[in-house]
Design goal:
Blueprint lengths: L7 E2 L4 E2 L4 E10 L2 E7 L10 E2 L2 E3 L6 H13 L2 E2 L4 E11 L2 E11 L2 E2 L8 E7 L12 H10 L3 E9 L2 E9 L4
Parallel strand pairs: 3-9, 8-12
Antiparallel strand pairs: 1-2, 3-4, 3-6, 4-5, 4-11, 7-10, 8-9, 12-13
Length: 174
Protein backbone atom coordinates (compact mmCIF):
# COMPACT_ATOMS: atom_id res chain seq x y z
CA UNK A 1 0.00 0.00 0.00
CA UNK A 2 1.55 3.28 -1.13
CA UNK A 3 1.20 6.32 1.09
CA UNK A 4 1.73 9.89 -0.09
CA UNK A 5 1.46 9.15 -3.80
CA UNK A 6 2.05 12.38 -5.74
CA UNK A 7 -0.83 13.44 -7.97
CA UNK A 8 -3.56 11.64 -6.01
CA UNK A 9 -6.09 12.95 -3.52
CA UNK A 10 -5.33 10.72 -0.53
CA UNK A 11 -8.88 10.37 0.79
CA UNK A 12 -10.45 9.15 -2.44
CA UNK A 13 -7.36 8.30 -4.50
CA UNK A 14 -8.58 10.31 -7.49
CA UNK A 15 -5.84 10.95 -10.08
CA UNK A 16 -6.00 14.74 -10.41
CA UNK A 17 -2.88 15.08 -12.53
CA UNK A 18 -4.76 14.76 -15.84
CA UNK A 19 -7.96 16.59 -14.98
CA UNK A 20 -8.61 19.79 -16.92
CA UNK A 21 -9.39 22.97 -14.96
CA UNK A 22 -11.95 25.34 -16.47
CA UNK A 23 -14.22 28.25 -15.60
CA UNK A 24 -17.86 29.05 -16.34
CA UNK A 25 -19.68 32.39 -16.05
CA UNK A 26 -23.30 32.69 -14.95
CA UNK A 27 -24.39 36.17 -16.09
CA UNK A 28 -27.73 37.39 -14.75
CA UNK A 29 -29.63 40.57 -15.58
CA UNK A 30 -33.09 41.32 -14.23
CA UNK A 31 -34.98 38.01 -14.50
CA UNK A 32 -32.84 36.58 -17.29
CA UNK A 33 -29.61 34.62 -17.70
CA UNK A 34 -27.19 34.97 -20.61
CA UNK A 35 -26.51 31.66 -22.35
CA UNK A 36 -24.77 30.89 -25.60
CA UNK A 37 -25.21 28.09 -28.09
CA UNK A 38 -21.82 26.42 -28.53
CA UNK A 39 -20.66 26.50 -32.14
CA UNK A 40 -17.36 25.83 -33.88
CA UNK A 41 -15.39 22.84 -32.58
CA UNK A 42 -15.68 22.79 -28.77
CA UNK A 43 -14.19 19.86 -26.86
CA UNK A 44 -17.68 19.09 -25.49
CA UNK A 45 -21.16 20.54 -25.86
CA UNK A 46 -21.50 21.53 -29.52
CA UNK A 47 -25.06 22.79 -30.07
CA UNK A 48 -25.75 22.96 -26.33
CA UNK A 49 -26.63 26.13 -24.41
CA UNK A 50 -24.22 27.15 -21.67
CA UNK A 51 -22.60 30.15 -20.07
CA UNK A 52 -19.26 31.32 -21.43
CA UNK A 53 -16.17 29.59 -20.13
CA UNK A 54 -13.27 27.39 -20.94
CA UNK A 55 -9.98 25.86 -19.95
CA UNK A 56 -7.42 27.54 -17.73
CA UNK A 57 -4.21 28.50 -19.53
CA UNK A 58 -0.71 28.18 -18.04
CA UNK A 59 0.13 31.12 -15.76
CA UNK A 60 -3.46 32.36 -15.66
CA UNK A 61 -5.59 32.83 -12.54
CA UNK A 62 -9.13 31.47 -12.45
CA UNK A 63 -10.53 35.03 -12.53
CA UNK A 64 -8.35 35.91 -15.54
CA UNK A 65 -9.61 32.74 -17.25
CA UNK A 66 -13.32 33.47 -16.75
CA UNK A 67 -12.81 37.09 -17.92
CA UNK A 68 -10.81 36.01 -21.00
CA UNK A 69 -13.21 33.24 -21.97
CA UNK A 70 -16.27 35.49 -21.57
CA UNK A 71 -14.65 38.17 -23.75
CA UNK A 72 -13.64 35.59 -26.40
CA UNK A 73 -17.00 33.81 -26.47
CA UNK A 74 -19.47 36.68 -26.02
CA UNK A 75 -17.54 39.92 -26.54
CA UNK A 76 -18.32 41.30 -23.07
CA UNK A 77 -15.99 42.11 -20.17
CA UNK A 78 -16.68 40.93 -16.64
CA UNK A 79 -15.89 43.29 -13.75
CA UNK A 80 -13.62 41.34 -11.35
CA UNK A 81 -14.83 42.88 -8.08
CA UNK A 82 -18.45 42.24 -9.13
CA UNK A 83 -17.82 38.62 -10.19
CA UNK A 84 -18.07 36.04 -7.41
CA UNK A 85 -16.98 32.42 -7.32
CA UNK A 86 -19.99 30.37 -6.27
CA UNK A 87 -19.21 26.75 -7.10
CA UNK A 88 -16.61 24.15 -7.94
CA UNK A 89 -17.99 21.23 -9.93
CA UNK A 90 -15.95 18.14 -10.71
CA UNK A 91 -17.21 16.26 -13.75
CA UNK A 92 -16.40 12.55 -13.85
CA UNK A 93 -16.85 10.35 -16.89
CA UNK A 94 -17.02 6.62 -16.25
CA UNK A 95 -15.67 7.30 -12.74
CA UNK A 96 -12.61 9.25 -13.92
CA UNK A 97 -12.31 12.98 -13.10
CA UNK A 98 -12.18 14.92 -16.37
CA UNK A 99 -13.01 18.56 -15.65
CA UNK A 100 -12.93 20.72 -12.53
CA UNK A 101 -15.11 23.73 -13.35
CA UNK A 102 -14.96 26.89 -11.23
CA UNK A 103 -18.30 28.69 -11.58
CA UNK A 104 -18.54 32.47 -11.24
CA UNK A 105 -21.70 34.59 -11.06
CA UNK A 106 -22.19 38.25 -11.89
CA UNK A 107 -24.87 40.80 -12.68
CA UNK A 108 -22.34 43.39 -13.91
CA UNK A 109 -20.43 43.46 -17.18
CA UNK A 110 -19.26 45.91 -19.82
CA UNK A 111 -20.32 45.86 -23.47
CA UNK A 112 -23.06 44.06 -25.35
CA UNK A 113 -23.09 40.33 -26.06
CA UNK A 114 -22.21 39.48 -29.67
CA UNK A 115 -22.06 36.31 -31.72
CA UNK A 116 -18.54 34.92 -32.02
CA UNK A 117 -17.05 31.89 -33.74
CA UNK A 118 -17.64 29.85 -30.57
CA UNK A 119 -21.03 31.06 -29.24
CA UNK A 120 -24.36 32.57 -30.23
CA UNK A 121 -25.55 34.47 -27.11
CA UNK A 122 -29.12 35.07 -26.05
CA UNK A 123 -31.01 36.04 -22.88
CA UNK A 124 -33.36 33.44 -21.38
CA UNK A 125 -36.00 33.87 -18.69
CA UNK A 126 -34.79 32.33 -15.44
CA UNK A 127 -38.22 30.84 -14.74
CA UNK A 128 -38.29 29.14 -18.18
CA UNK A 129 -34.76 27.82 -18.70
CA UNK A 130 -34.34 25.84 -21.95
CA UNK A 131 -33.06 22.79 -20.05
CA UNK A 132 -33.79 20.52 -23.02
CA UNK A 133 -31.03 22.39 -24.91
CA UNK A 134 -28.51 22.21 -22.03
CA UNK A 135 -26.38 19.40 -20.58
CA UNK A 136 -28.46 16.87 -18.65
CA UNK A 137 -26.74 17.58 -15.32
CA UNK A 138 -27.62 21.30 -15.61
CA UNK A 139 -31.16 20.39 -14.50
CA UNK A 140 -29.70 19.56 -11.09
CA UNK A 141 -27.37 22.48 -10.37
CA UNK A 142 -27.87 25.41 -12.78
CA UNK A 143 -30.76 27.04 -10.87
CA UNK A 144 -28.64 27.04 -7.68
CA UNK A 145 -25.88 28.87 -9.55
CA UNK A 146 -28.29 31.43 -10.98
CA UNK A 147 -29.54 32.16 -7.44
CA UNK A 148 -25.95 32.57 -6.24
CA UNK A 149 -26.04 29.58 -3.89
CA UNK A 150 -22.54 28.39 -3.05
CA UNK A 151 -21.76 24.70 -3.44
CA UNK A 152 -19.31 22.11 -4.60
CA UNK A 153 -20.51 19.09 -6.54
CA UNK A 154 -19.39 15.89 -8.20
CA UNK A 155 -21.26 15.18 -11.42
CA UNK A 156 -21.07 11.67 -12.81
CA UNK A 157 -21.66 10.73 -16.43
CA UNK A 158 -21.46 7.21 -17.85
CA UNK A 159 -19.81 8.61 -20.99
CA UNK A 160 -18.06 11.88 -21.71
CA UNK A 161 -20.76 14.56 -21.38
CA UNK A 162 -23.39 11.91 -22.14
CA UNK A 163 -25.65 9.60 -20.15
CA UNK A 164 -25.90 11.61 -16.91
CA UNK A 165 -25.72 9.30 -13.90
CA UNK A 166 -25.97 11.43 -10.73
CA UNK A 167 -24.78 14.44 -8.80
CA UNK A 168 -23.49 14.73 -5.25
CA UNK A 169 -23.63 18.17 -3.60
CA UNK A 170 -20.87 19.02 -1.15
CA UNK A 171 -20.10 22.00 1.12
CA UNK A 172 -18.57 24.94 -0.73
CA UNK A 173 -14.81 25.30 -0.59
CA UNK A 174 -13.12 27.66 -2.98
Amino acid sequence: LAVGVIGFHMREMIPYGHMKVATLAIIVRDDKVLLGEKTGNPEIGKGKLNGPGGKLEVGETLMECVIRETKEEMGITLVPDKTEKIAVITFLFAGVPDFEVHVYRTEVFEGNPVTTESMIPNWFAIDALPLDRMHDSDREWFAKAIRGEKFNAQVNYHERAAKFANIKFLPFTS
